[in-house]
Amino acid sequence: MTGPGHHATGFFSGVIAASICYKLLGLPFLISISSLPLAIWGSLFPDSIESFMGFRWFRHRTVSHWVPLWLLGLVVAFYLPVSSPLGSAIQAGLVGFTVGGITHLIFDWPNPLGIPFLTPYRRHSLKLWNSGKREGLIVLVWAGIASLFWLPEIQAMLA
């Protein structure tokens, strides 16, 4: 997936992250929606950290795309002890960031280059399409999935 595709899916991942924070973790609504911009950042992070400040830190799709690292981040975000509004905001931010990052990996996986699963240097690919192909359709489907997370609230507003 290209940068614009990751931006768009990152936005809708933020909608999903906000739903997780609000409905699953029980965080206040305004704090939950603060996860949205961090999900966008998380959806761009795996590629942007590879080359930072003019220095190449990692080879493309190695450590920064390693699935266990992102899943660990999500587990930490879920079990972070929260006892204050600041703690809730940090938790929402971590959930947003990791959901965005995991989404980045999900949409890089079908690409022939693939993403690393077991080790950071051995990739697996679904080989379904090349980067940049079908991005509009993918974003549209992801937007539909994200809207399902808020469907009861949408229905209540329309009733």
Overview of the structural elements:
- The protein has 159 residues and is mostly helical.
- It has one domain.
- Helix content is 62%, strand content 5%.
- The chain is built from seven helices and four strands.
- The protein has helices at residues 3-24, 29-32, 35-48, 67-78, 85-108, 135-148, 151-158; strands spanning 51-52, 55-56, 115-116, 123-124.
- A two-stranded antiparallel ribbon has the order 1-2. A two-stranded antiparallel sheet has the order 3-4.
- The longest helix is centred in the middle third of the chain and has 24 residues, at 85-108.
- The termini are far apart.
- The mean pLDDT is 88.
SSE arrangement:
Elements: H1 3-24, H2 29-32, H3 35-48, E1 51-52, E2 55-56, H4 67-78, H5 85-108, E3 115-116, E4 123-124, H6 135-148, H7 151-158
Antiparallel strand pairs: 1-2, 3-4
Helix pairs in contact: 1-3, 1-5, 1-6, 3-5, 4-5
In brief:
The chain has seven helices and four strands.
Number of domains: 1
Query: Spatial order of the strands in the main sheet?
Result: 1-2
E-strand count: 4
Q: Helical amount among residues, as a percent range?
A: 55-70%
Secondary-structure element string: HHHEEHHEEHH
The portion of residues forming beta strands comes to 5-15%
> What's the pLDDT, averaged over the residues?
88
The residue ranges in which pLDDT falls below 50 over 5 or more consecutive positions are none
Number of helices: 7
Q: What Rg do the Cα atoms give?
A: 16 Å
Category by helix and strand content = mainly alpha
> What is the CA–CA distance across the termini?
38 Å
Biggest beta sheet attributes? 2 strands, antiparallel
Write down the overall geometry: globular
